[in-house]
Structure formats: structure tokens, C-alpha cells
Amino acid sequence: MLRSLLSVSLAATGLVALSAPASASASNSPVVTRAALDPSLVAGRGAKVDFVEQEAENAATNGSVIGPDRTAYTLPSEASGRKAVRLTAGQYVEFTLPKAANAITVRYSIPDAPNGGGITSPLNVTVNGKNRTTMTLTSQYAWLYNQYPFSNDPNADLLHPDWWITECGCVPNATTPAPTITKPFRPSHFYDEQRLLLGKTYRAGDKVRLTVPAGAKAAWTVVDLLDSQLVGAPKVSLVAANVLAFGADPRGKRDSAGAFDKAIAFATRAHLKVYVPPGTYQVNRHIVVDDVTIEGAGNWYTVIKGREVALSTPAPDGSVHTGVGFYGKDVSAGGSRNVHLSGFAIEGDVRERIDTDQVNGVGGAMSDSTIDGLYIHHTKVGLWFDGPMNNVKVTNNVIVDQIADGLNFHTGVTNSVASNNFVRNTGDDALAMWSEKTSNAGNTFDHNTVQTPVLANGIAIYGGKDIKVSGNLVADPIREGSAIQVGSRFGAEPFTGHLWITDNTTVRAGTYELNWNIGLGAIWFYALEKNIDADIQVVGDHFLDNTYNAIMLVSDFGVKDLYSITNVHFKDIRVDGTGTSVVSARVKGSASFENVDARNVGAVGVNNCGSFNFPPTGSEFSLTDLGGNDGGGTTGPWLAPWELPNTITCDDRPPVVAPPAPSPWS
After folding, report:
1. In which residue ranges of the chain is CATH 2.160.20.10 found?
2. Run means of pLDDT, 10 residues per run, the chain, 666 residues
3. C-alpha 46: how far from its chain's center?
4. Which pTM value belongs to this model?
5. Span 2-144+187-229: which CATH code?
6. CATH topology of domain 276-643
7. Residue among 354, 407, 310, 430 nearest 150 (CA)
């Protein structure tokens, strides 16, 4: 408890896991990473993106490196790779460009205002010591506190004093004497990012320096990483309904929503697409789209930006705010079809989580539609689709700094794909399929990259039929979830048919579950409301640098004798480093294992608790060894004969042995 409270207190001040100052000449040559790893370790997995990632801790700096630390509610835990660089006035971090670039993205954190609401503070950008530009950083979209659905007020009392909390191991309003709750309580969502066009193209080897100037309002500025890229020229569409012809204001001074509506109506009648040329367009409500193509000049050039607007009376769907977003028609109105959105940015203004609000970047129902090449920032959810709907393709988008999910296929979404998307800093599941009331079917998440989901999972599948999760890269989940979850929860329909989870890589997952006080798996199967018994094939996945377990199969203690997990098959798996076990089984059921290779395993290879009834016949969970399972760690082979088929080895809280950094597999 004391360590938890201390971590919370330190996080609030930014003084977390502070190391000695880094050498100013730490890196004269660029260190390029993907998810803070050597790119060779994740080759062929995740999204192919136009930018190059460089971690601040690998760059030259006279600031201080913070981390590594995976403890929730601390600044390093939410940083990519669990490290970052802390700067004060006069300090800098300098990146050497690995390729020609004319644009950068800086991921950063600065303090909140004492009473919440955020501050702004400058950060100077120079290249080779010249051409200074000042970025105005903000924490207005960061810093959430307290319990779900969270608060912007660091001084708020507990939102749910009738909930059990790990900090005191108690239910506060049922405890005498009342526990002391340190404020701010559970600060999180520390980071934001900002993009900048540099005005010219710089060469490989040129040096981009980020400096905190004297007099900066922020007492400290933490830089997590810099993405650099070469942005092409704006796209021009001449044969189109140009929104400027209908009165849209590219300077963003006037609201352009009506002009967009007129352009869409004209384009539909004339069988043209809508073109949105370079500029920033103010749109403060939904743009309803059906049977229309809307193209921008590219998401660095065409920005559609809006304020969150309070409604005078709640909408029929329960929303109390509206804001910028492109929405298909509701299914009750027949839904939309043949919608194609591409080449622009959506900049929202969402600073608090209100689950009934429809303030998402893209929403509604859109069958036979495509969403391609968007940059979606500061909305509640990047893309939330409410089906039934069929055949939507979500490709090549960047979805960042969301209050809740990145993307959710919700309720009867079928034959749809999300591929080659980059998702960072979501406030809930980054990519989710949720079969609430009506089952999803035939959907695929393929070759996406997910980094630092602050809450919940990188990829979550809640029910459905014939689902594929393939080729994705998921890094650094923080709390109350992990990299990949397969869950019967949230009222989801059962899993049926097949579920293929193939050729994915996770890194620095297997988080600590604060409500259970145990470690999760990088991939975890959770039977909370139903059995999980569809044919599940987990093949070719790599689980790297797992904080606790690589694989978990679990039920909740209150339903442990009701639900089981069966028919799960693991094959051709690599596990490189676990703080504890390769497999943790806390449910009744069974799974098979073939060619699962593990190394640097910190505890017994299989933590088998079953349903916690501990019968003399062995655990209620059985493992089948199909051969080729090799390697292990501190206690010998990870899948030893003595563990089979159902030896009880239950120890949920063994000593954690931090694994070494991942390395090439020989």
C-alpha cells in the first residue's frame, strides 16, 4: 500500500524513477526503433507507417532519463518503452534524423494545472541550431484522475467510495476508521502529441533539437519520442465538389458544417466526390454521410477541427455534447452505405469521458465503406461503429490521444477489416470487437500497431464468430488489461466457429491487475459470463519481455465453478522473457501446446490453480503436450513432465524476475 501511494504522489509531481542526467553526447547516430525495440525483432508485424520512431532516451540530452518503470499511475509506465526524458528550463533533447524529413511528431507530457484543466507551455524546435520554431504544448487533453469514468479534477473525492480499492485493500465507505486517500487519486493519461511541418526538407544526419526555453510555464517537460517523416505534396482533385465553392472557410474562423452539407448534397446529385483542399475547417457537429466520397489533400494538410458543444437538452441517444465527427446514419434509419473517407485529419476537443456522448471521430453504421489515411486526434473514440453493418475497411489511419477506445466494431459488424492502422495513447481498448446483443462475424484485425493503451487492452475480442487477429504489434499496455484479450464479458454473445490469433507480437505486456493483485498474461482469456469453447488457434505469436505471464486463462472467483475455457490450441509460439510464468491457469478447462519455445522464464513454467477447489485428482485445468515445447528458465523446462496433465502448482504471487531485453532468436 505504501509503495502504491508513494508512486501516486510522485507521479503527480513528475519526479518518478529519475535517473542521473544522460550524457549530452549519448547518441550522435540515430537509434531507430519500433515500439522501442530493434526493428528486426518485429519485422513483418504491425503497421507499415510513413514515419520513423526515435525514443528520447536514446537521443542526446542534458536532461534526465526517467524509468524504466511499469507501475501504473507513473510517468514512465505510460511512456513508449517505459522510459522518457525529463527536461527543465534550458535543457534539451536532440535527435539525429535517420532519413530525409520535413515533419515531426513529438510525444510529450507537461504538468496539469493545480485544479485541473491543463496548462500550455513552449518548446523550441531547431534544426542544426537554426530555424527556430516554437511549439505550444498543452496538457488540456491529458491528466485524468480517480475511478471510472474518471475526473479532470485532481482534488476530487472518490467517485465510487463503495468500490473496493487496492490502495487500502478495502471498501472506503464501509471501513472504520475511514482510510486516508491521497490526492490526486490515480493520476493517469499523462501524454499527448503534437505534429509540426518544418517548412523545408532536411537531410539524414541533420539534428532536431527540442529545448525548453527560460520562463516556460511548465516546471518540467517530459519528451517520450519523436517521429519524423517526409510528407508528400498535397493531393489535388479537380473533378470534385470543392467545399470552398460552397462557402467553407479554410482559415477556421467560421463554422463550415453547413458548407460541407451542401457540398455533400451536390456531389451526391452530380455523382462526384467531395474535395477538401488544404486548410483548417471549423466543424462543431456531426457531418452525416451516406453514399459519398470525401477526400482531403492529405492528413497533414486538410484538418477538420471542432469544439465540443454542450447540448441544451440531451439527444435521444443520451448525448449531452456534440462535436466534430463523420457519422453514418443510425441503423434505425437504415444505416449508410458506400461511404469513402480519406486524406484528412479530425481534431476533436474531448477532455472528459462521458460514455453516452457521441463525440467520436467516425461513427454510426457504414456498410460497403472505406476509411483510409485519416489522422484522428482528441476525440472520445477514434472510430466507433454501431451495427448491424457489413463490409467496412479501416486502413492506414493514425488514431492517437483518445479518451476511450481507438476503434470498436460494436454489435453485428460483419466481414469487416481494420488493417495497417497505428494507434497510440488510447484511454480504453485500442482495437475492439464487441458482440453486444448481435454477434460480430467474419472480421479481421491485421497488421496494426498499438502502443501505450493507458487503460484496458491493446486488442480485445468480446464474443463473435470466425474472427481473425493477425500480424499485429502491441506494446506497453498499462493497467486493467493487457496486449490481447479474448473475453466473455460486457454482455457479449458467445464465441462460435473459429478464432485465429496468429503471427502477432506483444512486448512489455502481461501487466499487473490492480483489482486482483496478480499479474495477467500478454494474451489472456477471460470467462466471466459464459464458457469460451469455440475453436481457438493461437499460432506463430511472439510474447516478448512479459512483465508477469505470457499466457493467462482465467475466470472470476465468484463464477469459477460455472464457466470454463476449452479448445484453445497454442502452436509455434515464442516466449522471450516472463517475470513469472509462461502459462497461468485460473479456470477450469484445457489447452494444448505444440512447439512453444520459451526462455528467460522467471518462475515455474505453469502456474496451475484451476478453479481453486484443489481436488486430490489435480487441477480442474489440463494441459496437453503435443511435442516440441522447449526452453524454460529459473526452475527448469517450462513444460516439464511433472506438470502434466494437471498438477496443481498454484502460486499467484511468486517473486518476479525481471527478464532481460528481447534479443534475436537463434
Report:
1. 276-643
2. 34 46 62 98 98 99 98 98 99 99 99 98 98 97 98 98 95 96 97 98 98 98 99 97 99 98 98 99 99 99 97 94 98 98 99 96 99 99 99 99 99 99 99 98 99 99 99 98 98 99 99 96 99 99 99 98 99 98 99 99 98 98 98 93 98 96 93
3. 13
4. 0.96
5. 2.60.120.260
6. Pectate Lyase C-like (2.160.20)
7. 354
